[in-house]
Fold this sequence. Notes:
Oligomer: single chain
Radius of gyration: 65 Å
Distance between the termini: 149 Å
Strand content: under 5%
Shape: rod-shaped
Structural class: mainly alpha
Number of strands: 0
Amino acid sequence: MKHHLKTRALILPLLVVSLPTIASGGEGINYGQLIAQAVNCLIFFGGLGYILRNVIRDFFSIRVKGIRDDLAMAESSREDAKRRLDEIDEKMANLDREVAGIEAQARKDAEAARERLLRLAEQDAQKIMDQAKADIESSKRDAISQLKAYVADKAISEAEQSVRESITDRERNQLFTDFARQMGARS
């Protein structure tokens, strides 16, 4: 490749020197002048190349190094992107399992909540039944007490009515006196 570059470096100055001659159409070519111009051109470009060789070499080495660095960074970026893509692919592959796991856990939690609510509802229903039984028993006792009081009042009223009809005023006064004596004896 170096030989190819050197050949190009020689041909280019010769073309530049010979352009005026070629442009003239070949009339009256002065070969001596052409050779002198070519030698001058070679000396000029050779000296310029010699003076600028370090600068040119540094420029190209920096350029090559920059290209290599860019290639290394591009390779690193490509590997990083591939790694990320692999991670995403792995997550996508596990996504179905994760969703199924979440759904299963949600079903399990919902069933547990349903069971808990059923137990609480049964407990509440039992409390309501127990309270209703207690209320019924209390109402029954109150009703029996009221019924007994009513029957007793009715019996006393009937007995009083019966006694009033069968007892005379004299017997009534005698009963009252006897009752008062008994009460006085007790006190």
